[in-house]
Design a protein that fits this description.
binds calcium ion, Arc Repressor Mutant, subunit A, phosphorelay response regulator activity, five-stranded antiparallel beta sheet, transcription, alpha/beta
Length: 231
């Protein structure tokens, strides 16, 4: 199966290099050179696109604004590409719904590896149920909405992926490494304690204000989500 990528990049030398490399890897590529063209190409090819590689600094509409508009009704994977490497920008990108983030200059192999991780992740559970209910927690994989009791819970992309992984393996203890591979990808090179940090974020949103805790630490091993599942 050929995957289709929308590449949004205004720098001519970089974009033609990336198009060549992506086509060499058998991806079908659409190229947009500014934010408006990106949204037009996205609108016209929505049904066939599998992934968007989106530069941050663009003419007309910047990458963050393009991402915000796409995210209003689509969870297509997006890799943000930027020359900036301030941690605040990275957080803004991820909070706006980017699935990954790559800082220029980068090795083409690094970008290709991230693309493979994301597409593998997308294709892994094509038929699965769209609604999980555990006690008073619900997670809808179509709308990406999470609720607990009557409250809508706002999660970042990573928090959502982490919760989804725990819910899919309900009652099963997952190690930090398993969570890292599943949520951050096998090519992740940071510290494994990023898992503990994100579990803390998740607990603050999902568990802290509720009498019954669902996410539990299994000392020395990892984490487990327990509770009564409803079909
Ligand atoms: Ca640019």
């Amino acid at each position: 199966m050929t995957n289709t990528i929308l590449l949004v990049e205004d720098e001519e030398a970089l974009s033609s290099y990336l198009v060549t490399e992506l086509q060499f890897e058998d991806y079908q590529v659409f190229l947009a050179k500014d934010g408006e063209q990106a949204l037009n190409l996205y609108d016209n090819n929505r049904g066939t696109l599998d992934l968007i590689i989106l530069d941050w600094m663009l003419p007309k509409l910047d990458g963050l604004e393009v991402l915000r508009r796409i995210r209003k009704n689509d969870d297509i994977p997006v890799i943000m590409m930027t020359a900036r490497d301030y941690i605040g920008d990275k957080v803004a990108g991820l909070d706006s719904g980017a699935d990954d983030y790559i800082t220029k200059p980068f090795e083409i192999e690094e970008l290709l590896a991230r693309i493979r991780v994301i597409l593998r992740h997308e294709n892994r559970h094509p038929q699965e149920s769209s609604l999980y209910t555990v006690e008073d927690l619900t997670l809808n994989t179509k709308s990406r909405q999470v609720t607990r009791g009557n409250n809508l819970i706002q999660l970042t992309q990573r928090e959502y992926e982490l919760l989804l992984t725990l819910i899919r393996h309900g009652g099963e203890t997952l190690t930090r490494d398993e969570l890292l591979d599943s949520v951050w990808g096998v090519d992740f090179e940071g510290q494994p304690n990023v898992v503990d940090v994100y579990i803390r974020y998740l607990r603050n949103k999902v568990d802290r204000n509720y009498p019954h805790q669902l996410i539990h630490t299994v000392r020395g091993i990892g984490y487990v989500l327990t509770g009564n599942y409803q079909e």
